[in-house]
Specification:
This protein is an alpha+beta fold. The protein has one domain: Ubiquitin-like (UB roll). About 20% of the residues lie in helices and about 25% in strands. It has a 5-stranded mixed sheet with strand order 2-1-5-3-4, covered by helices on one side. The longest helix has 9 residues.
Protein backbone atom coordinates (compact mmCIF):
# COMPACT_ATOMS: atom_id res chain seq x y z
CA UNK A 1 0.00 0.00 0.00
CA UNK A 2 1.08 3.57 -0.69
CA UNK A 3 -0.24 6.59 1.16
CA UNK A 4 -1.57 9.46 -0.95
CA UNK A 5 -1.88 12.83 0.79
CA UNK A 6 -3.62 15.90 -0.58
CA UNK A 7 -2.16 19.24 0.44
CA UNK A 8 -3.63 22.72 0.53
CA UNK A 9 -7.13 23.50 -0.70
CA UNK A 10 -7.86 20.04 -2.12
CA UNK A 11 -9.31 19.25 1.29
CA UNK A 12 -9.38 15.46 1.03
CA UNK A 13 -8.30 12.94 3.64
CA UNK A 14 -5.26 10.78 2.88
CA UNK A 15 -5.88 7.51 1.07
CA UNK A 16 -4.12 4.16 1.07
CA UNK A 17 -3.95 2.61 -2.40
CA UNK A 18 -2.52 -0.52 -3.98
CA UNK A 19 -0.21 0.80 -6.69
CA UNK A 20 3.02 -0.28 -8.35
CA UNK A 21 3.65 2.99 -10.24
CA UNK A 22 2.54 6.61 -10.16
CA UNK A 23 0.50 5.83 -13.25
CA UNK A 24 -1.53 3.35 -11.17
CA UNK A 25 -2.11 6.08 -8.57
CA UNK A 26 -3.19 8.57 -11.25
CA UNK A 27 -5.66 6.08 -12.76
CA UNK A 28 -7.28 5.45 -9.39
CA UNK A 29 -7.46 9.15 -8.49
CA UNK A 30 -9.08 10.01 -11.84
CA UNK A 31 -12.10 7.95 -10.72
CA UNK A 32 -12.73 10.26 -7.72
CA UNK A 33 -14.66 13.33 -8.90
CA UNK A 34 -13.56 15.65 -6.09
CA UNK A 35 -9.90 14.87 -6.81
CA UNK A 36 -9.76 14.36 -10.58
CA UNK A 37 -10.41 18.05 -11.32
CA UNK A 38 -7.22 18.96 -9.44
CA UNK A 39 -4.83 16.46 -11.01
CA UNK A 40 -3.90 18.33 -14.18
CA UNK A 41 -2.93 21.38 -12.11
CA UNK A 42 -0.94 19.67 -9.37
CA UNK A 43 2.67 18.74 -8.84
CA UNK A 44 3.56 15.36 -7.34
CA UNK A 45 6.18 14.29 -4.83
CA UNK A 46 7.13 10.78 -3.77
CA UNK A 47 8.71 10.60 -0.33
CA UNK A 48 9.17 14.39 -0.45
CA UNK A 49 11.02 14.32 -3.81
CA UNK A 50 9.32 16.11 -6.72
CA UNK A 51 8.71 13.98 -9.82
CA UNK A 52 6.71 13.95 -13.04
CA UNK A 53 7.66 10.39 -14.03
CA UNK A 54 4.41 8.40 -14.07
CA UNK A 55 6.39 5.19 -14.66
CA UNK A 56 8.15 5.65 -11.31
CA UNK A 57 7.92 2.43 -9.34
CA UNK A 58 6.45 2.57 -5.85
CA UNK A 59 6.93 0.27 -2.90
CA UNK A 60 4.75 -0.37 0.10
CA UNK A 61 4.90 2.50 2.56
CA UNK A 62 5.82 5.17 -0.01
CA UNK A 63 4.13 8.56 0.46
CA UNK A 64 2.71 10.27 -2.63
CA UNK A 65 1.91 13.95 -2.09
CA UNK A 66 -0.44 15.83 -4.40
CA UNK A 67 0.53 19.52 -4.32
CA UNK A 68 -1.87 22.09 -5.80
CA UNK A 69 -0.55 25.33 -7.26
CA UNK A 70 -0.20 28.20 -4.82
CA UNK A 71 0.39 31.90 -5.05
CA UNK A 72 2.57 33.73 -2.64
CA UNK A 73 4.49 36.81 -2.10
Amino acid sequence: MVIVEFLGPIGEESLELEAKTLHDVAEQLQKIDTISAWLSKCAVAVNDQMTSDLSMELKSGDKVSILPPVCGG
